[in-house]
Amino acid sequence: MAKINPVLAEGIHKSLVQNVRENYPRYYRLAYSFVKNEQAAADIISKGIYFSLYNGRKLKGTPDTTLWFLQLVVREGMRAMYRNNFERAFTANSRHYALMETLEPSAVNCFKLYYFEELSMEKTAEVLHFDVREVEKRLESAVKGLGLDAVSEEEADKILAEMQDVYESAPAPAGLEAAVEDAIAREEQNFAKYLTSTKRNAVLKPVGLVVLCAALFVLTVAAGRSNPDFAQAVMAMPFMEKIFGGFF
Known about the structure:
Layout: H1 6-35, H2 38-56, H3 65-83, H4 95-100, H5 105-116, H6 121-128, H7 132-145, H8 153-168, H9 176-226, H10 228-235, H11 240-244
């Protein structure tokens, strides 16, 4: 882990932990939308929380905690989706939601964050590392792919409401909260080990330097006493006579 300010890191950590305890069901729904598998989604959340907290300690200031977690969930969700080493549930209760899942992934991500998570285009762009214009293009592509541009505004709203219901009704495993707390505990334990190691090294490094200097001094004196030419060369160096005078 890079060198960090423990006081600042602890403040950031507390903000992130508070956010994840309040909002983990929200992050789980997003994770589930990538993999359509309860255990795979829970694994995404567990891993995403751990690395969100771990990397959060390296920051120079407290981030927008919700966007910070959404970024990690999207990243882990995309990785899991492409690995595809689990059984996916089929979306049978919404033709449009099932259709959405077949569209280009970056357009789907923009659509979910903008319509289901209700982020602004600017915040959607921040989560996905796009510029706003790219988000606009991908939203237009998703809307067109779903046929929402070909129906009335009232009908489009009904379709979006139906899709939102499917998104928010993601089934969750019984042990999800325990998995969240376990991820928090594991990261805190590892950080405690890091702090202990840092404090120990802060003591040992100066001691080690003193020992090294003493060893070099003894070796130099021994070499100088056995080799007059070496002693003469050492004494010719700046300040060496003050250090080794009387020892050769």
